Amino acid sequence: MTQLPEGARHLPGHFDRPAQQALVDEIRAVLAEAPLYTPVMPRWGRPFSVRMTNCGPLGWVADKSGYRYQPHHPVTGKSWPEIPASLIALWEAVAGYDQPPEACLVNFYDDTAKMGLHQDRDEADLSAPVVSVSLGDDCRFRIGGTERGGPTASLRLASGDVFVLGGTARLAYHGVDRIYPQTSTLLKNGGRINLTLRRVTKASIDMG
Ligand SMILES: O=C(O)CCC(=O)C(=O)O
Ligand SMILES: [Fe+2]
C-alpha cells in the first residue's frame, strides 16, 4: 500500500507549538480528575502497554469482560471530565459531522509502548469519523485496509499532527508500531499522548 486509504487524512502540524502546550495543560487537568489506568485485554487479562483515561460523557474502557463505553472511570467511579473546548473546536473543523463527539480517549505511550493493529468499531455510529491528535514524541503509525492481514502503509506522526479516519477508512486496521523516544520536548518526562475523539451513539444523548 503506497497511499492512504480513501477517507484517511493526515494533517501534519495542525496544532502549532503554543496550541500543543495549551492542550497539554488541559490534558493535565483531565488527568488530575481522571487518572491514567492500565486497561487489560478481554478474557486473558493481559495488560495493555498503553495507559488510558477519557474525557467526555462516555469513555472507552477495556477489562476482562470486554471493550465498551461507559460514563464513569473504572477505578475512581467518577464521571469523566469534560472534553476541552479546543478539542470540540477541532472536531467541528475537521469531522464534517453535525453532532459533537461523545468520547475523547487519552492514550499515554511511554518509550516502549505500542498498540497492535485493530479496528475502532465499538461505536454505534460509524458514519462519524475518528479524529486523533498526537502530542509529544513521534511514533510510527501503521494503517491498512478494512480486512485483517491486508497490505499496510506506515507513516510517522509528530506532535501537533491530526489524523482523521473517515469514509472507507473509518474501519481501516491501524496501530502504533513504536515510539521514537526523545524526538519532542513538549512533555517534560517524554512519551507520547494521543487524543482520540469519537461519536459513540447515533442520536443526541442525555446522560442525565
Ligand atoms: O495512538 C494512536 O495514534 C492511535 C490510537 C488508537 O488507534 C486508538 O486509541 O484506538
Ligand atoms: Fe484505534
Automatic annotation (TrEMBL):
- Which Gene Ontology cellular component terms are annotated? cytoplasm
Leader sequence segment: none
Which coenzymes or cofactors are required?
Fe(2+)
Q: Which Gene3D superfamilies match?
A: Alpha-ketoglutarate-dependent dioxygenase AlkB-like (2.60.120.590)
Residues that bind substrate: W60, Y67, R68, Y69, D122, R148
| UniProt binding sites for 2-oxoglutarate | N107, F108, Y109, R192, I193, N194, L195, T196, L197, R198
The keyword Nucleotide-binding is assigned to this record: no
At the top level, the lineage of the source is Bacteria
SUPFAM superfamilies attached to this UniProt entry? Clavaminate synthase-like
MF terms from GO for this chain are: broad specificity oxidative DNA demethylase activity; ferrous iron binding; oxidative RNA demethylase activity
What UniProt keywords are attached to this protein's entry?
Dioxygenase, Iron, Metal-binding, Oxidoreductase
Example of a GO biological process term: oxidative RNA demethylation
| Manner of cofactor binding, per the entry note | Binds 1 Fe(2+) ion per subunit.
Pfam families to which the protein is assigned, alphabetical: 2OG-FeII_Oxy_2
InterPro entries, per database record: Alkb, AlkB-like, AlkB-like_sf, Oxoglu/Fe-dep_dioxygenase_dom
Annotated residues for binding of Fe cation: H118, D120, H174
Domain Fe2OG dioxygenase: from-to ranges: 100-201
Q: What is this protein called?
A: Alpha-ketoglutarate-dependent dioxygenase AlkB
Q: Which organism is it from?
A: Jiella endophytica
